[in-house]
Task: inverse folding
């Protein structure tokens, strides 16, 4: 299984916000902390807002903040909502499938089972669990925010 950058960045944004609780964080700050394109992060943050993971605050002093506590944000839920699909092989998408052996293939059920197991494993953890499992405080790895870090 391979997550898209969109889902990967969504998880990183949420971990950054969870490491900076009770503070509005700009897109520019997250971009600088991770070395990720601000343009790409804007789309990620919009998706996180649309799915209720973050609260987007517009304006000059705007940015994002977690919409609920890290203990209430499931890693599995984030991945399911931010990942466009879980088509690990061509035949998982009936609209684009061109595989000629689908009617006789025994892999489909196995790969479906593996995908469900992957998702089930992610469902066991929240952002709070991830932060607790970190061997070092994540915020120590981020660049220090500046007073004029920019607008989200």
Result:
């Amino acid at each position: 299984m391979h997550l898209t950058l969109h889902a990967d960045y969504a998880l990183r944004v949420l971990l950054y916000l969870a490491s900076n609780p009770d503070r509005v964080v700009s897109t520019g700050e997250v971009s600088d902390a991770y070395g990720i394109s601000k343009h790409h992060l804007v789309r990620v943050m919009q998706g996180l807002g649309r799915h209720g993971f973050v609260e987007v605050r517009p304006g000059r002093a705007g940015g994002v903040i977690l919409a609920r506590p890290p203990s209430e944000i499931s890693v599995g839920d984030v991945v399911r909502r931010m990942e466009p699909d879980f088509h690990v092989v061509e035949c998982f998408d009936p609209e684009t499938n061109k595989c000629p052996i689908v009617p006789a293939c025994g892999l489909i059920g196995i790969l479906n089972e593996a995908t469900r197991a992957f998702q089930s494993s992610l469902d066991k953890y929240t952002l709070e669990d991830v932060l607790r499992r970190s061997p070092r405080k994540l915020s120590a790895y981020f660049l220090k925010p500046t007073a004029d870090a920019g607008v989200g």
Notes: The mean pLDDT is 87.
